[in-house]
Amino acid sequence: MAFMEKPPAGKVLLDDTVPLTAAIEASQSLQSHTEYIIRVQRGISVENSWQIIRRYSDFDLLNNSLQIAGLSLPLPPKKLIGNMDREFIAERQKGLQNYLNVITTNHILSNCELVKKFLDPNNYSANYTEIALQHVSMFFRSEPKWEVVEPLKDIGWRIRKKYFLMKIKNQPKERLVLSWADLGPDKYLSDKDLQCLIKLLPSCLVSTRPSILGADDVFTVFFVGRKSWTYSKNGELYWILVQTEVVP
To answer: Which GO terms describe its biological process (predicted)?
Structure first.
């Protein structure tokens, strides 16, 4: 953001790429379970931190959701008998801390929406696909030739960047892929300059990637970037890869 620039209303001010760290400060035993008090910090500033409380079952739920990544994560095993013993709780706390260290230092996992929601529920509680779909649907009211077919599975690691399968109404057999992303906290160009720059992208993509499909339409609207490509089911390698079940 430019120096002394006032952020526009509704502008995303949170930088999702700033890493989160987590440290278990204490534990408290209740009648039937143990809660772990965790201090989460964004970036290097100690002041930018907060506390969350998680149970082992919360860790287990997160770990089950992350299994699709195909990684071996060191979550301590379950224990049904003797799980309220002090020595066991202390040992489990060490194991859970190690688990947090692993997921917060892994570039892919640390930027995963599931992990962000686990560590920072106040800032990552929204359904970003639904929000993007609302923006896309609102925008295309003034572009009647386009039709949104369906949201696509997550592609890449950017939480707020979403993809949709599109079609042109008078060409129903042709499919295009649309990407939608908030411009985020680093936008410093004026809307006019940004619009001029964005219009150059399709020609740049074609000239720099002659063997790969270029963008058909690129522009910005309402502080949001929108871009669409021709959808090639059996063509461009990138789109072949993202159609698989591999987690980004």
So the answer is: early endosome to late endosome transport; endosome to lysosome transport; negative regulation of monoatomic ion transport; protein targeting to lysosome
